[in-house]
Design a protein that fits this description.
The protein is built from 5 helices and 5 strands, in the order E-H-E-H-E-H-E-H-E-H. By secondary structure, the chain is α/β, with parallel strands linked by helices. A 5-stranded parallel beta sheet has the order 2-1-3-4-5, with helices on both faces.
Length: 140
């Protein structure tokens, strides 16, 4: 049986990281979850992953390398150009939404402020990208 592809969570806020991890664990997904707490660590984690992740949950406002630059690097590399990337952010800026989609984000999700809405949104994201959406072939 092939190994499960990891989910990469790129989040610098410890509270949001904890809530996201709790929601993903509650969804009963068996995929390993890799954490990166800044953009540079995100790029290292993603490019070192074998197999590639199922999905990257990427915050916009990150130390070292911001989320848009991470996305730009992912889309510029042949190995990761088709990797599903969900911008999971608190930003409501219209320009952030436009820039994210322009750079090839697969989805843009605002983090709900309310705890139960936040955990429900993350649970649904995990289930969709891991169980519902067709995965890229490993050879890509």
């Amino acid at each position: 049986m092939a190994s499960l592809r990891p989910i990469v969570l790129v989040e610098d806020n410890p509270d949001d990281e904890m809530l996201t991890m709790r929601a993903l664990q509650r969804s009963k997904l068996k995929n390993p979850i890799l954490i990166a707490r800044d953009g540079a660590e995100a790029l290292n984690t993603i490019f070192a992953a074998n197999p590639l992740p199922s999905v990257v949950l990427l915050d916009l406002k990150l130390p070292k390398v911001n989320g848009l630059e991470v996305l730009r690097h992912l889309r510029a590399d042949a190995r990761t150009r088709l990797l599903p990337v969900v911008m999971l952010t608190s930003s409501t800026e219209e320009q952030d939404i436009l820039d994210s989609y322009d750079l090839g984000a697969n989805s843009y999700v605002r983090k709900p402020v309310e705890f139960s809405q936040f955990t429900e949104a993350v649970t649904q994201l995990g289930l969709y990208w891991v169980l519902v959406s067709e995965q890229l072939p490993e050879e890509v």
